[in-house]
Amino acid sequence: MDVQDGHFEKAFRKFKRKVEASGLLRELQERECYEKPTTIRKRAKSAARKRWLKEVSKNKLPPKLY
Q: What is the DSSP string of 46-57?
């Protein structure tokens, strides 16, 4: 990735987004140290709950305006 006209901050933000999207940092953290199976399950359950709450809030009906 080339930095154009000295816009280093913009290029760095793009780079961080691409690295985050690829999942490299998450994989590195997972391989770095051992994580107990209960912790893995707990984190997965928490992520599923967050996804579910987001979906529910997105599909919530508007309040009655009468």
A: HHHHHHHHHHHH
pTM of the model: 0.54
Using CA atoms, how far apart are residues 26 and 15, in angstroms rounded to an integer?
Answer: 16
Domain locations in the chain as residue ranges: 8-58
Residues 21 and 32: their CA atoms lie apart, in Å, by: 19
Structure letter (DSSP) for residue 5: T
pLDDT tens-place string over residues 21-63: 898 888 888 889 899 999 999 999 999 999 999 999 988 888 8
